[in-house]
Amino acid sequence: MLVISKNTAQTGKKAAADAAKTVQSKKAPKAPKSAAGSALSQAPNSSGKTSAKAATAASKTLSSKKATKAEKSAAASALAQTPAGGPKKK
After folding, report:
1. Alpha-carbon span 29 to 65, nearest angstrom
2. How far apart are CA 52 and CA 21, in angstroms?
């Protein structure tokens, strides 16, 4: 039997605002925009989860020296909502 771990974390208002700025930015690279989009998909009125691809983009954004504070905030929020450990066998 497979049990899917459930992560009920949601993007907070500040992180969602930072994510929106990142998504709308003409200067933001692809990875921060992907992470920001994932964070926005987990805002309180949404039901999304961070995909593996978005989590990788968020990780790259967090380790980037060029990423802005807003981009890193959105990336951190997206990573916080990555399903914990994925599917587990019971």
Report:
1. 13
2. 23
Helix (H) / strand (E) element for 13: namely helix 13-24
* DSSP letter for each residue of 19-73: HHHHHH-SS--HHHHHHHHHHHHTSTT------HHHHHHHHHHHH-SS--HHHHH
Q: Residue 89: beta bridge partners?
A: 2
Token pair listed for 1:
């039997």
**pTM of the predicted model as reported, rounded to 2 decimal places:** 0.50
Q: Given the structure tokens 């605002």, which residue do they identify?
A: 17
pLDDT in tens, 23-73: 888 888 888 888 887 777 776 666 566 677 778 888 888 899 988 888 888
